Amino acid sequence: MVATAPLTTGTVGKPPGATGRRVAVVAVVAVSLAIVAVALLLPAWPAGEDMGSTHYMGLLAANQPWNLLLFMAVPVILAETIAVSELAILFRRPVSPVVAGVNRYAGLVAGFYFLGVLVYLMKHAVIPLTTTGGWRGWADVVAVGFYLLGIVPLFGMTLLETRVVGAGWDDHRRLKVHATLVGLFLVVAHIAMIAGMLDPAVVGWDPSHLMDDGSQMEGMTH
């Protein structure tokens, strides 16, 4: 009988006891609250000239290259790092501690990072656009909405890595859920990209009906 190496990811280890899980929950809540507080205190970044695109594209195009790096490159690179390292974990035995570590810490950081992005954009974009009727048709809503839905899989990975969720799961179940969350993020991110690249006028938005005074939402247009 040939022995096989166990399926191992960066999330593997001895399941924490009740005390350890409580500590993990408190730590996650504390870090999350700190991130939310910082995101709420950040001022809205100045926007550039409005070219009439979706607010998703306007966000990425403004303040080059910083908006593109902070709102797109960082979360996507983290998600793809997790995806690639997960493939290495699936197909290589034994699993390199470096690969397992990269997989774990990328998953840990991704959710906390995107939580800050979510809170910042809710304050400076989603709420103002909704209360003033500034959305540019359904494609605009879909683009921003699906982008922000990335918080579900990314923060889910953070909860998984900290053992707030799935502390008693076996390695196979943890890896399965972890990979599913990565795939879900890539799906919602690509839906956001496709909708965000649409010209709002093509899908029925009339620019003359955006705002009577012609003003633009700070931090979201370019």
Structural features, described:
There is one protein chain. By secondary structure, the protein is an all-alpha fold. It is 64% helix and 0% strand. It has seven helices and no strands. The longest helix is centred in the middle third of the chain and has 36 residues, at 97-132. The model is unreliable at 1-13 and 209-222 (pLDDT under 50).
Mean pLDDT over all positions: 84
Order of helices and strands: HHHHHHH
Which structural class matches the secondary elements? mainly alpha
Content of β-strand: under 5%
Q: Count helical runs.
A: 7
How can the largest sheet be summarized? Answer: none
Residues in helices, as a percent range = 55-70%
Q: Cα distance, first to last residue?
A: 64 Å
General form:
globular
Write the layout of secondary structure elements.
Elements: H1 18-41, H2 55-61, H3 66-91, H4 97-132, H5 137-148, H6 151-161, H7 171-197
Keywords:
0% strand; disordered C terminus; disordered N terminus; 222 residues; mainly alpha
Quick overview of this protein structure:
By secondary structure, the protein is mainly α.
